[in-house]
Design a protein that fits this description.
- The protein has one helix at residues 131-160, and strands at residues 2-7, 15-19, 22-30, 35-40, 43-50, 56-61, 66-72, 78-83, 88-93, 100-104, 110-115, 119-125.
- It is built from one helix and twelve strands, in the order ββββββββββββα.
- It is of the alpha+beta class.
- The protein has a twelve-stranded antiparallel barrel.
- The longest helix is centred in the C-terminal third of the chain and has 30 residues, at 131-160.
Length: 163
Amino acid sequence: MRVLTWTKNVFDSNYQLFSDNQIIGNLVFNMWQHSATGLFENQTFFFKSSGFLGLDTQIFDINHQPLGKIQVHGFALNATVELANGEKYLWHANSMFLNSWQLGASQDKLVKCNGASGSGFITEQNIDQSFVLLAGLFIKETFAKMFFFIIMLIFIWFCLYKF
């Protein structure tokens, strides 16, 4: 089992990953295109979403070879990551505020994350594909953007249609 830490700015979607206080990766989002670029352990990964809220995402390597896909299941606070080899990981939030979540294929292959809005810890157990951890952070951020969008819609509705 390996324990990593992550940080991000409060109003930013970009993550930095650390092991023993050394940066080993990052996940940088392009907020206008529902996409992100990840670097983890000297490998580069691309996350490209489709649709209005970006609920379907393809994962590619540096040579644009497909590695897997992410399917976000709306308001159920869960998602599925399916690797190109057919292996499936299930993501689910342990809290409504997304400060605790896990992504796993089984009890033996598991990524768990705990943290506040700007930093946290990730424990990784028997994960063969390094992009799986980044996929977990990508899903968390997708849900955070969905919640922000919904709150903004409610605010606009409230401002336009006061009782």
